[in-house]
Amino acid sequence: MRLDKFLVACAVGSRTEVKNLLKAGRVTVNGKKEKSAKLQINEERDEIRFDGQKLDYEEFVYYMMNKPQGVISATEDTKHRTVLDLLDDLARTKEVFPVGRLDIDTHGLLLLTNDGKLAHALLSPKRHVEKTYLAQVEGIMTQEDVETFAKGIPLKDFTCQPAKLEIVSVDPEKNQSLVHVTIAEGKFHQVKRMVAYCGKEVVDLQRLTMGTLILDEKLKRGEWRRLTKEELETLLASIT
């Protein structure tokens, strides 16, 4: 691996910034100052230091985002802002992608990573990874709806797997309900279509969980952070 690519991957700086840092003599390779960005290094064997601090190569990164509405779950788009546009330059150098998708008008938990194996495992239908949503509904959800969800709702193009509907609250005066919906699938507009099958309409949808991951309440919409060591270890353990 080229030295400049390694330094960028370790979040030392952008490609341009890294070249300037090398010229300034702030990087050492195996104890010797190195100014060549093109130097080929072995990220596992060579000792790279920046301002005296040893750098450890990080092949995979994992970010939790509180996706806002109006942004699409994609790496690029000609019409809309994408979730990658919300990351800083250094995070984007990791070439991450969203694991699964949230509709443009859905907000909440989204995992971004460059770990393709993990993403495949989380999205595999065979693993039945559960996702929980908080839905604000126009209409009063009932116990009958709870039972309908549990049986598996037959939509036009497929029959949903049994799902859990939990009624959080109802407001008869406003004709609104607040519910938790837990599904192990992720078909297009699935939660909205399931609620519509019951004769009601989702007016706001937020994803709260995906597998073992729980949306950090401290993250404002549009904000993101790295997964903690505990979150990552628990997530990886859940798919092995």
UniProtKB/TrEMBL annotation:
Transmembrane feature ranges: none
All residue ranges annotated as the RNA-binding S4 domain in the record: 1-59
SUPFAM superfamilies from the entry?
A: Alpha-L RNA-binding motif, Pseudouridine synthase
Write out the entry's keywords from A to Z.
Isomerase, RNA-binding
A GO-annotated cellular component: cytosol
Carries keyword Transmembrane? no
GO terms assigned for molecular function? RNA binding; rRNA pseudouridine synthase activity
**What Gene Ontology terms for biological process does this UniProt record contain?**
enzyme-directed rRNA pseudouridine synthesis
Q: Quote the EC number.
A: 5.4.99.-
Any Pfam family hit: PseudoU_synth_2
Q: Tell me if GTP-binding is a UniProt keyword of this record.
A: no
Family the UniProt entry places it in:
Belongs to the pseudouridine synthase RsuA family.
List the PANTHER family: PSEUDOURIDINE SYNTHASE, PSEUDOURIDINE SYNTHASE FAMILY PROTEIN-RELATED
This protein is called Pseudouridine synthase
Organism the protein comes from: Streptococcus mitis
**Which gene holds the coding sequence for this protein?**
rsuA_1
